[in-house]
Design brief:
CATH topology of the largest domain: Alkaline Phosphatase, subunit A
Number of domains: 2
Structural class: alpha/beta
CATH architecture of the largest domain: 3-Layer(aba) Sandwich
Shape: globular
CATH class of the largest domain: Alpha Beta
Mean pLDDT: 96
CATH superfamily of the largest domain: Alkaline Phosphatase, subunit A
Distance between the termini: 23 Å
Bound molecules: zinc ion
Number of strands: 14
Strand order of the largest sheet: 10-9-11-1-12-13-2-14
Radius of gyration: 23 Å
Order of helices and strands: EHHEHHHEEHEEEHHEHEHEHEHHEEEH
Strand content: 15-25%
Largest sheet: 8 strands, mixed
Helix content: 25-40%
């Protein structure tokens, strides 16, 4: 398949927006200086995309699953599996995974600090003390993430994600006893309760915490799991479409989704997933990845952060930086590729959270039917030749554009 065009999907996280008062009703995309994004729209075919379905407020994880061609309603039970895969734990279909906090409790299991003083150092040693234990025949995998965060994976027969959280999600409350929500989850609930107790027994004696206490810092003396989810048994994107795919993202959650989907993760120095992310380093990585991969999938988190912060001015600046990065990619890529430029959901600065509005989409490359859209924004793209599509339609469209699809029928 050496000569087929490559596919580049660029997801600008939370890029879509709504009219902004301080911009006299324009959106940040409409306000931003973005000659390259406009060029992509002008030379390509545009449209709007509902990442999951019309009006559905998509999370980043469920949206990325949909855009990669999966049905999130069938395989998404919680964020845990994708967080776990994102921090580098090898998860397997059937594992049940959790997001966790290192927290501080008193001797009555009342939560004093849900984030253990936002502990930064020593969590790797704490995690190591918990990793590898076995409870009722279930294997426990445990790994630290950033700051007070960690992930827990349970592996064995008869596990279920349908349990309540141990984390009370508030301070001055007792750690919750985990309860099964379905009969099939009794074993899992018992294992998690046991794990939480064990974590207290082991961590309260741990040298890292002894040292914290001697400095007057809250000890990270318990682990509180939440967000249980089962790792889906899913075919890999590469096997489904006979393509070699890679993902570039600074966000653990998105890394996890891409890893579960079977994409190789390309780590980029300086790709932090924050506003300080090095977009040019990412652009260089994209150019390089296009040499060896058929599909390169990129997530740029920064617009979503501005949306959640309600910072319209910063969102405009971030879009200009994305424009520069895309200019670099278009100038320097040696391969022919079809580009899809879009977002995983709308995060309006006026709402500070995800909404169900469609996101703009531009597809650029050989063979596309150019339409009359001249600029890349939520209003102009709505008049484009792609019309309104769903996230699950995107990959099939790109596969046929690059001659990778089987004909349906004769
Ligand atoms: Zn997102
Ligand atoms: Zn978000």
């Amino acid at each position: 398949m050496g000569d087929l065009e490559k596919i580049l999907i660029v997801i600008c996280d939370g890029l879509g927006d709504r009219p902004v008062d301080e911009f006299k009703g324009k959106t940040p995309l409409q306000m931003a200086k973005k000659p390259t994004l406009n060029r992509i729209a002008r030379e390509g075919i545009c449209g709007m995309m509902y990442p999951i379905d019309v009006g559905i407020r998509a999370g980043s994880d469920t949206s990325h699953l949909a855009i990669l061609g999966y049905d999130p309603y069938k395989l998404y039970t919680g964020r845990g599996p994708f967080e776990a895969a994102g921090v580098g734990l090898e998860v397997k279909g059937g594992d049940v995974a959790f997001r966790c906090n290192f927290s501080t409790v008193d001797e009555n299991f009342v939560v004093v600090d849900r984030r253990a003083g936002r502990i930064k150092d020593g969590t790797a040693a704490l995690a190591k003390a918990l990793d590898g234990m076995e409870i009722e025949g279930i294997k426990v995998l445990f790994k630290e993430s950033i700051e007070h965060r960690a992930v827990l994976v349970l592996r064995g027969n008869g596990l279920s994600p349908y349990i309540t959280d141990a984390d009370p999600h508030a301070e001055n409350q007792k750690v919750h006893e985990v309860k099964p929500l379905k009969a099939e989850a009794e074993l899992t609930a018992r294992v998690v309760n046991q794990f939480v107790k064990e974590s207290y027994r082991i961590l309260s004696e741990h040298p890292v915490n002894r040292e914290r206490e001697s400095k007057g810092l809250p000890p990270a003396n318990i682990v509180l799991p939440r967000g249980a989810g089962i790792v889906p048994h899913i075919p890999k994107v590469g096997e489904l479409h006979r393509i070699k795919g890679a993902a570039i993202t600074g966000i653990a959650l998105v890394k996890g989704v891409c890893r579960v989907a079977g994409l190789d993760i390309i780590e980029v120095k300086g790709a932090t997933g924050g506003l300080d992310t090095d977009m040019m380093a990412k652009a260089e990585a994209v150019v390089k990845a296009l040499e060896t991969y058929d599909l390169v999938f990129v997530n740029i988190k920064a617009p979503d952060i501005c949306g959640h912060d309600g910072n319209a001015g910063e969102k405009v600046k971030v879009i200009a930086r994305i424009d520069k990065a895309m200019e670099y990619v278009l100038k320097n890529a040696n391969q022919n590729f079809v580009l899809a430029l879009t977002a995983d959901h709308t995060t309006p600065v006026s709402v500070k959270d995800h909404t169900g509005d469609a996101v703009p989409l531009a597809i650029h490359g050989r063979g596309v039917r150019k339409d009359s859209v001249r600029t890349f924004d939520e209003i102009a793209c709505a008049k484009g030749g792609m019309g309104h599509i769903l996230g699950k339609n995107l990959l099939p469209f790109l596969l046929q554009l690059t001659a990778r699809s089987e004909k349906f029928g004769s």
